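Hello everyone,

My group is preparing for a crystallization screen and wants a predicted model to guide construct design. The compound we'll soak is flavin-adenine dinucleotide. Before spending weeks at the bench, it would help to have a computed complex in hand. I've included the protein sequence and the ligand's SMILES below. Output in structure-token form would be ideal because that's what our pipeline reads.
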Amino acid sequence: MESRREKNPMTEEESDGLIAARRIQRLSLHLSPSLTPSPSLPLVQTETCSARSKKLDVNGEALSLYMRGKHIDIQEKIFDFFNSRPDLQTPIEISKDDHRELCMNQLIGLVREAGVRPFRYVADDPEKYFAIMEAVGSVDMSLGIKMGVQYSLWGGSVINLGTKKHRDKYFDGIDNLDYTGCFAMTELHHGSNVQGLQTTATFDPLKDEFVIDTPNDGAIKWWIGNAAVHGKFATVFARLILPTHDSKGVSDMGVHAFIVPIRDMKTHQTLPGVEIQDCGHKVGLNGVDNGALRFRSVRIPRDNLLNRFGDVSRDGTYTSSLPTINKRFGATLGELVGGRVGLAYASVGVLKISATIAIRYSLLRQQFGPPKQPEVSILDYQSQQHKLMPMLASTYAYHFATVYLVEKYSEMKKTHDEQLVADVHALSAGLKSYVTSYTAKALSVCREACGGHGYAAVNRFGSLRNDHDIFQTFEGDNTVLLQQVAADLLKRYKEKFQGGTLTVTWSYLRESMNTYLSQPNPVTARWEGEDHLRDPKFQLDAFRYRTSRLLQNVAARLQKHSKTLGGFGAWNRCLNHLLTLAESHIETVILAKFIEAVKNCPDPSAKAALKLACDLYALDRIWKDIGTYRNVDYVAPNKAKAIHKLTEYLSFQVRNVAKELVDAFELPDHVTRAPIAMQSDAYSQYTQVVGF
Amino acid sequence: MESRREKNPMTEEESDGLIAARRIQRLSLHLSPSLTPSPSLPLVQTETCSARSKKLDVNGEALSLYMRGKHIDIQEKIFDFFNSRPDLQTPIEISKDDHRELCMNQLIGLVREAGVRPFRYVADDPEKYFAIMEAVGSVDMSLGIKMGVQYSLWGGSVINLGTKKHRDKYFDGIDNLDYTGCFAMTELHHGSNVQGLQTTATFDPLKDEFVIDTPNDGAIKWWIGNAAVHGKFATVFARLILPTHDSKGVSDMGVHAFIVPIRDMKTHQTLPGVEIQDCGHKVGLNGVDNGALRFRSVRIPRDNLLNRFGDVSRDGTYTSSLPTINKRFGATLGELVGGRVGLAYASVGVLKISATIAIRYSLLRQQFGPPKQPEVSILDYQSQQHKLMPMLASTYAYHFATVYLVEKYSEMKKTHDEQLVADVHALSAGLKSYVTSYTAKALSVCREACGGHGYAAVNRFGSLRNDHDIFQTFEGDNTVLLQQVAADLLKRYKEKFQGGTLTVTWSYLRESMNTYLSQPNPVTARWEGEDHLRDPKFQLDAFRYRTSRLLQNVAARLQKHSKTLGGFGAWNRCLNHLLTLAESHIETVILAKFIEAVKNCPDPSAKAALKLACDLYALDRIWKDIGTYRNVDYVAPNKAKAIHKLTEYLSFQVRNVAKELVDAFELPDHVTRAPIAMQSDAYSQYTQVVGF
Ligand SMILES: Cc1cc2nc3c(=O)[nH]c(=O)nc-3n(C[C@H](O)[C@H](O)[C@H](O)COP(=O)(O)OP(=O)(O)OC[C@H]3O[C@@H](n4cnc5c(N)ncnc54)[C@H](O)[C@@H]3O)c2cc1C
Ligand SMILES: Cc1cc2nc3c(=O)[nH]c(=O)nc-3n(C[C@H](O)[C@H](O)[C@H](O)COP(=O)(O)OP(=O)(O)OC[C@H]3O[C@@H](n4cnc5c(N)ncnc54)[C@H](O)[C@@H]3O)c2cc1C
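Reply:
Good plan to model first. Here are the tokens for the complex, ready for your pipeline.
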């Protein structure tokens, strides 16, 4: 409830109880909702909201042109292909086993029939790869993830962690799906803490082989996509154990990646020593066959070590260009950041679909109304605007932020610039976790905002929520990823004080730290005019101020607590604070990108619509955290009140262009699919679906 | 993110950047999460959280004795019955059609084999009825709802809206499931706004019959439970149309309820004139067969009018003990409040199961740890405590509040006391909406808190969330119900000013209004000692202050806006504010009940544990709304900070008795069922489930 909480109404005008009371009884009359003793019809007249202010006339074409991705052609090709193949569309109800087969067939259809070959783009044109992923994800999210497992995880591990010999041997088979494969990192006992993995790969110099073993049940590889049914290979992450000539006899070289064949190329039988079980029914993504793998002395040739960052020679000597176990492991994991970029990007895609369905239906749906007048659209209720309009604004905000992330990632893949690598790493961790957490909550809000009809499976919220849910966990758990963002900020904070340079995205910290460490300006704290509150400078300053102060304070707290609690204890004592810092930072980055996008929009009316959304995004976030701002007198009480009023007003304004803003996502009916959100005759399409 | 937001850290000690920075780098080293370049092993030592303070020794038996419901015997009988009948247990994966058949068989088994007869308790012993509902709901939520449709909705409408002739004719058949039935109120176009229903029941004096008609597609009865497959009858809500002798020819007497046979008693064929379609696959509750009904001149005898509140004589004359259409409709709907009480109560049951699974697993699961020390339980992370401990405290809070609601409801059913009717009506609307919204969000938090293993269907969060989701919507949409609570408060506010009496639950408004309308006390606003913050008087005062102020202010705002916008417009302009008021009020009622429950607990150690939870509930809510309190200087900046610190500390304290608090719910493993939450050998039970 806190998000709707009126944090400030107490400063609202004082009441004259008696007069009010009389009127109140009459007011409450208009409300005659379900299952309640219902008073008589109201007598009071009303003016409906939508008549309240002049509506902005948005050039929809210009807006969608501005929003449109570069790779719309391949996306449309994908939509057309699946549209032409009803046999490849996922029905509303399907068993797990059938769903898995269908999903595999969808992938085969995409690659072998539609001729879309995602693998080549994984390395060479990531923007295109992500566009493909977004499109197939909206066909069925399971397909998006299945494709990601095959090309980005299994394929990606081979080309990014292996060397030329691996590429030569596996590229074509992975590309054309002859070599289906898995990415086997997680174990039953270790997910987030990958350094704790226990599977071993022991070098046997006699036979020139590695022996893969699962030392105990906790080390069973778990959740491995493609393992339960379709995979022929797995990239297995295991501790490399080398024989030594000292008393210990062996040496643990840390976690490395190995290609392990798990099923016979011809018979598809599980290979000897490999035990595969099915992880079973999941909350969602049941088109993906996640399995659990146990290895009993499975032998693989030495060549199957993915040896880009570390190699073992014929005689068992270890070589690497990188000095330490941790550097090597870091480099290994660093190559996999693309998965996270993809999830952030795909999550915005889900948010777009969900917001579109909820908003289109809320425009159509009417319920209650002023006495003796037609019922009103539920989107005219202030509460419905509160549920959906900041969400619509946020969708735009995240759109621009993730497009930027994808660009940066592509650039990084080309230049391998070190600064950029660090930047993309933290940005992808932050955006992935922030956006997926938001979308997960938004999906529930959308379902609820559509009432009973939102609960029909055909209207999509259920499967979208169930499929998307795990975006918060895989490719790095959100709570863990945010800590990486916080750690990165602290590192840069330190650099700043040592006079180092700060990278592009974060540079505001450098510029602003000094300003923000001083007390808030008591004069501007009182400015409450709309022009001021809608000034990007005020908004950005407020976000940056908050981040800078959070950073400075947590640094001090960490320092204090580490004296008594040690590093681990101090970090834990400040953990909520650190997570807040990370989120605050990400919100700041998102706002900066949104402001830039508004500025660069060439069409004036489109720009005006974006500006409304951007202001709503900014002020809604400030209002949500008004306690922080009030507590240090960054805003005075009346300014807080003005921010709240303006937020409600902007929600109402955005409602007036909601249709245009949603249309600009250019999601055709065959992508949104929910009958209640069809662009024409929604009700009759809905009744048809159930058989009338 | 707002809930974790550090609203106050800026007042934390100022930093010495340089020293801090050096330490920070070391601190950040301990963090080596998945898929990221991971730094070297940390060197700093740590003290784990759980060693920080002395643990309270809770007498678990005393605590569970205090928590235990009166009707544990019948609940155990139900559990035992289903335990002994594996054929009646719902498998993880099941098709919609099979699920519906199974669900019907579960109900038949319960009634005819286990001999549990819920129908007699609907009217005579509601507490027992709700206990049965809770127990069957934890077997399968679909069964709980299916049972509710049969006995509380269909059966309840017959006995509560009908008269002796209906009871005599239908009681036994409903009781023994020969007369399966539906409650057909909602239409495609009208859910919350039931006064807008369009189905008609026209009296035909020639044949002494009513003719039921669906005038247009928007009037198709929709979402009707039991209609798609099993129902033989439906209580249909339709506008009663009577012939008149004036020029209009007919008169619309408003919505009434009629018993309409929809399927043949022998052949089970749909009867002539009735068209039934299947609403299809839903987000959850797929064991319930919701259908859509269209009527084409379906004739029923005059006796089928449920005539308790209004009757039609042989010659078409209308009689009623109640004066107006609205009074009659109100009385009709008022009889159905039990469904809402049941949902609030059942929702707490779901929350208990979900919190139990998440907390038991969080105690077991270990991930990361201080350097060279064993990994720690994830419940030792401050962030995990933040996710789950206020939730555990809230579960206790809602437990006591809904137990109270059920008691009041039973009393009301016995006494029919008018004051109590009004009280129960508002309280059930408020608690139903507040608790179900909370539980819906909590289920997502629990899934996420359990990481990947929380996503295995077998661990329950998916089905619990999907099934529970609609609790927010049916039996009255939450956003609509909260408005009823607000309207009720405004009504009482008015009564107060007219010198009327306030009923029990709300009486604090009477007592406190005068105090709270004055300015906050600048002295107590600065008190920040733990004793003060944990004093129930401070906590209740803070909650009541907020509610009183919100009420007073919204009354004034409504008065102001109604001048220009009319009643409907003014209400809408203040809608967010009104919803906040309603929530604030409900939170206050919940806190008062919790404080009372702590006070009355006979065992000192159990009492101490409850006190921890109660303080956490109270302070967490105050902190969530700290902006409001700060803005009117109800709390000074340092007090705000103290509240935040104490909240984190209490989360940690509650964590230390989390096992005991969860155990006291007395949910046996065969009820929680999630392998990851088994009370012993959870991991090995989990591996067994997937086939190892
Ligand atoms: C559908 C699905 C598909 C998957 N596919 C693959 C795959 O193909 N290959 C593969 O290798 N893996 C795969 N995974 C595994 C996935 O990567 C892991 O689930 C993920 O890394 C999280 O690890 P975990 O589940 O062990 O959670 P844990 O690490 O056990 O986390 C559990 C909880 O503890 C909290 N927590 C943990 N550490 C900390 C900390 N330091 N501070 C605060 N809180 C903490 C987390 O926030 C989380 O809420 C898949 C998982 C699923 C569910
Ligand atoms: C699984 C299931 C089982 C059901 N079983 C039955 C049954 O057996 N019998 C039966 O008769 N019905 C049944 N229903 C219908 C149920 O009672 C309705 O769905 C419910 O009353 C809500 O109505 P609605 O769906 O039309 O939502 P709407 O009233 O259309 O509401 C849609 C949205 O608009 C918002 N809204 C509406 N009015 C206002 C307002 N005044 N102010 C602010 N916001 C507003 C709501 O908050 C909601 O978010 C069932 C529904 C489902 C999904």
